[in-house]
Amino acid sequence: METLSLGIDVAKATVEVAAWLDPRGHKLGRFPNTTEGHERLGERLAALAARQEATQLQVTLEPSGGYELALALWLHAHGYRVLLPNPASVRHFAHTSGRRAKTDGQDALLLAQFGAAHPSAPAWQPLPPHVAALEALLGRQAAVEDLLQQEQHRQGMLAAQPHLPAVVRQSVAQVIAALSSELASLGTAIREHLAAHADLSEELDLLRSVPGVGVRTAPWLLVLLRRWALLTHDAGTAKGLTAYVGLDPKPYESGSSVRRHAGISRQGSAAMRRTLYLAAFGGVRHDNALRAFYLRLRGRQKPAKVARIACARKLLVWAWAVYRSRTAFDPSRAGARQTAQPHEEVLLTA
Predict the structure, then answer these.
(1) Burial of 50 (0-12, 13-18, 19+ CB in 10 A)
(2) Rg, the chain, Cα only
(3) Tens digit of pLDDT for each residue in 276-297?
(4) How far apart are the C-alpha atoms of 103 and 96, rounded to whole Å?
(5) Cα–Cα distance between 273 and 310 in angstroms, integer?
(6) Could you give the 3-state DSSP secondary structure of residue 331?
(7) ∠ CA 94-97-99 to the nearest 5 degrees?
């Protein structure tokens, strides 16, 4: 055996481990999701690899809200090949495999089988520490913004209640003040972090040259492009990137009579698609190449929302080209193609 496929179902406190030895799987037990537990797991897997004469261990983890990250980093650091597939792909695989049971052990077996069935799937690679730190700062900033927005909405709702105790209004006001202060501190921390890393600052400046990419969008886009470059060993294509984000076309037709509304796949991060859509929404309001593309689509009677989705995809493709070439966006080259290509026609019906 050259490669031994393992599956690990991750929870907050424990991990359930299984191996796939074709044609069936074997449960290897439960381990604590701690550094000590990871070490014990490593000893168990090393003994199994020796018995099976495996030269490589491939571990498939399903993302579980961040609880899998410490284990993924430990496995990567110790030479394991780590897969972090899209959960939707795993669910589809379970359906096509006829699996119906849902337990931690069964999930581990499913992940081990999924990994064995996808030996050429791209291995997960951790972001460089300073990029991972930027992602953590951006994530915390977004979370605090959501909390602040909730409290501000609550404050507006409470203002219409005449008999509300004053302490309730005071409590909401204090929380809003605290969240606003925290948001300001995070903004300062992000700016300082970017200033301390010249490579990030240079890449952000280049990305901001893309129409629609502003101060808020550029850092998120940078993290995405860094992750895509790592995942594809700097050989990824723009078409693959749009599929990774979920902006790729999803036609639905068969024969001469089956024709349904064609849209986009919506795989990957919904938050990233929303960020790109909002960036496109703002970008088409200015006199630039993105607006010219948008107006061409509208001139062909495409609905406004559909045209903006196409602009979000165009923005992403341009950003990847800028990132790969390490040169600023060139409007003259962007305007060279005046019509959409056939694969874009499908996207325009999203």
Answers:
(1) exposed
(2) 24
(3) 999 999 999 999 999 999 999 9
(4) 18
(5) 12
(6) helix
(7) 60
Cα 139 off chain centre by:
12
* Residue 122 per-residue DSSP state: P
Which structure tokens are listed for 125?
A: 């690679």
Q: Which residue has the tokens 């024969």?
A: 255
In degrees and rounded to multiples of 5, residue 90 shows phi and psi of -70, -40
**40-96 pLDDT, tens per residue?**
999 999 999 999 999 999 999 988 888 999 999 999 999 999 999 988 889 889 998
**Ranges of H-type helices in the chain:** 35-52, 69-77, 87-96, 104-117, 129-158, 166-195, 198-207, 217-231, 238-245, 270-283, 289-299, 304-325, 331-334, 342-347
Task: Note if the bond before 23 is cis, omega within 30 degrees.
Answer: yes
- The total of other beta-carbon atoms located within 10 Å of residue 295's CB is 12
pLDDT digits (tens, 9 = 90+) for 151-167: 999 999 999 888 899 99
Show Cβ contacts of residue 137 under 8 Å, excluding neighbours closer than 6 positions: 186, 189, 190, 193
Q: Is 236 left (phi over 0), alpha (psi -120 to 50) or beta?
A: beta
